[in-house]
Structure formats: C-alpha cells, structure tokens
Amino acid sequence: MVWLRPQAALGSNPPMSNDLAIHPSPTFLADVEARSGEHVSLCYQCRKCTSGCPAAFAMDVMPNQVMRMVQLGLEDELLRSRTIWICAGCQTCTTRCPNDIDIAHLMDTLRQMSRASGVPAGEANVVKFHKAFLDSVRRHGRLYELEMIGLYKLAAMDFFGDMKLALEMLKRGKLKFLPPGIKGKREVRRMFHKEKNGNEEKG
Ligand code: SF4
Ligand code: SF4
Predict the structure, then answer these.
(1) What is the pLDDT of residues 26-72, one digit of tens each?
(2) Whole-prediction pTM
(3) Which percentage of the chain shows pLDDT scores above 70?
(4) Quick one: which of 2, 4, 59, 101 could link to 83 by a disulfide (CB 3.0–4.6 Å)?
(5) CB 22 near ligand 2, within 6 Å
(6) Contacts of 113-120 spanning 24+ positions with Cβ under 8 A
(7) Which residue's CA lies nearest to atom 5 of ligand 1?
(8) 21: helix, coil or strand?
(9) Atom in ligand 1 nearest the alpha carbon of residue 88
(10) What does the pLDDT look like over 159-201, one tens digit per residue?
(11) What domains sit in the chain, N to C, each tagged with a CATH number?
(12) What's the first-to-final CA gap in the chain, in angstroms?
C-alpha cells in the first residue's frame, strides 16, 4: 500500500527526494509497544492528551496524531518530527488518557528510537540540549547546571547567547560553581549503563 506523505508530519526536514510516497513500516507498532511497554493500539483518538498539552502550540504533530502514526507504521515521518523533541515530559497527557497510556514515556521511547535510527532530528538544538542534560546527570547523579550549559553551548556553537541571563542567575545563586554532591551517584551511572546495554541488545 502506498500513502501520500502528510505535510504536518514532515517537521523541518523536507523529504530527501521528490518522491511523495510514504512506505509504512509493518513492524513499527509492535516495536514501539515492546520497547515502551505502552499499549498504543488501545488509543481511540479521544484527543484528551492533545487538548491538555501545554506544548502543543509548538508541535508539528499533535500527541493524538503521534499515537495514530505509530498505529499506521509511519516510522520515518514520526522519528523526524519536531514533536518528540518539543515534548516537555510534563505527563499532563498521561494523567488524562482514559486508556492508561503513558504518552510521556512513549515520547521518551520515540526520542531514543530517533537517536538510534540516525534520522535527522526535527529539532537539532533540542537534541544537543537533551544530550548535554543526560551527560551531566550521568556524571554527577543529578543535574549540574553550569556544566550542562557549557556542554550545550559548545555543541550548539552558541557561546554568547543568553549571557546576560546566565550572569543574573549566577548573581542570584541559581547556578552553582561546584557540582552537586549527592549519594547514589554509582547507582545512577549503573542505570545509564543498563539502559545503554539494553538499547544495544535491542539493536
Ligand atoms: S508530556 Fe509531552 S505530550 Fe504530554 S502533555 Fe506534556 S508536553 Fe504534551
Ligand atoms: S488520551 Fe489516550 S486514548 Fe485519547 S487520543 Fe490520547 S492517547 Fe489516545
């Protein structure tokens, strides 16, 4: 079966060629359900997730459409979308879903799948921010904001943007010069290690 590529699902990454045909993946739904443990096939498009989402205004695919795209196997279109990177993980959608689908968790799974698949992400700088955030948490057991900002700025090659804001935060003590000292750093590292190995095994 051949479908025409929906414009809303393209995000900021246009198709590589003039071929507007899309080729649904027959295994995408099963793969997403297995990785996330969420029963996406139960979604019946009530749109409660979308109507409560505070980030929907910035998304190119609405949360309920994400569910439908998974059901239809629109893997490439979804993994390229801006939505999966714009989702703030606030879980409003999760608490509203009548079918107990943890949509916030699903978005996290889709981000991981997008990174693993190597498709260009719909929001390049969000991906860099995401990576800087996780690298910092992995190293220190929790977020070390100053380091994360440095890592992100380096990756995004944006050295002077937000400088005034950073100085103001330093002045007010919102950014600490030294990394946080917390218990359980080793356990956090072990979690990251386990997650990485699990993903490698899944392929
Ligand atoms: S978790 Fe993401 S999709 Fe769900 S309501 Fe929050 S921002 Fe929207
Ligand atoms: S709230 Fe749940 S059932 Fe309703 S559209 Fe969203 S995911 Fe589907």
Answers:
(1) 999 999 999 999 999 999 999 999 999 988 988 899 999 999 999 99
(2) 0.69
(3) 84
(4) 59
(5) no
(6) 113/31, 113/32, 113/35, 113/79, 114/79, 114/80, 114/84, 116/199, 117/79, 119/76, 119/79, 119/80, 120/13, 120/80
(7) 53
(8) strand
(9) 7
(10) 677 777 777 777 777 777 777 777 778 888 888 787 776 655 5
(11) 3-117 (1.10.1060.10), 124-180 (no CATH)
(12) 27
- The dihedral over CA atoms of 130, 133, 139, 143, expressed in degrees to the nearest 10, equals -150
| 21, β-bridge pairs | 4
**What does pLDDT average to over the chain?**
82
With CA atoms as reference, report the closest residue to 148 among 130, 160, 161, 164. Answer: 130
Residue 10 burial (CB < 10 Å; 0-12/13-18/19+)? middle
Q: Does the beta carbon of 96 sit less than 6 angstroms from any atom of ligand 2?
A: yes
